[in-house]
Design brief:
This protein has 181 residues and is mostly helical. It is built from nine helices and no strands. InterPro entries: UCP028770. Keywords: Membrane, Signal, Transmembrane, Transmembrane helix.
Length: 181
């Protein structure tokens, strides 16, 4: 081990007294305080506003998708999106899946899986009408619902036609009358 001599001790003491004061930052203290104020404003005010806005925009995406796809249950999807905001986003995946599903029961009831009744009439009127042959699925869809009086009249006419055809069929099957065997 080396011994520290009194001369070395005096030299180290003089160097330690002559050292410049140390700073934790490369910036001057006044500029450092200003930067700290800016960072605190961003962290306390601006970041939460941006976070809440992004959270809200993400949570209304299923509603916007349902409107774009003309989903017949847009209002229910909108309600689920609002509920999801209050439940911290737990219901959001359900709203997302619902917006992308085809409403099978609605199609069975109304013959279509899109909603043309609420606010989408302008889009349908602006689009040119295409022939039914261009859309094979459209040709298979049942007709629009009619009034019950028109349906009952049509049913009566069809029953009369069926009765007439059954009478003709029965008449053609009867053996001829007379002595000929």
């Amino acid at each position: 081990m080396t011994r520290i001599t009194p001369l070395r001790a005096c030299a180290l003491g003089a160097l330690s007294l002559a050292a410049l004061p140390a700073h934790a930052s490369l910036l001057p203290p006044e500029l450092e305080d200003g930067l700290a104020n800016v960072i605190s404003w961003v962290a306390l005010i601006i970041a939460p506003i941006i976070g809440i806005t992004v959270f809200w925009l993400v949570h209304i995406l299923p509603e916007k998708i349902a409107e774009k796809r003309r989903h017949p249950q847009v209002k229910a999807i909108q309600t689920l999106c609002l509920l999801s905001l209050f439940f911290g986003g737990l219901l959001w995946p359900l709203a997302w899946l619902w917006a992308y599903t085809k409403p099978v029961l609605h199609k069975m009831a109304y013959g279509t899986d899109v909603d043309d009744t609420h606010g989408h009439g302008d889009d349908a009127a602006a689009a040119p009408a295409e022939p039914a042959a261009a859309h094979p699925a459209a040709s298979k869809a049942p007709e629009a619902p009619r009034s019950s009086l028109a349906e009952s009249m049509e049913v009566m006419q069809l029953r009369q036609k069926v009765a007439a055809l059954e009478a003709q069929l029965a008449a053609s099957r009867e053996p001829p009358k007379g002595g000929d065997v």
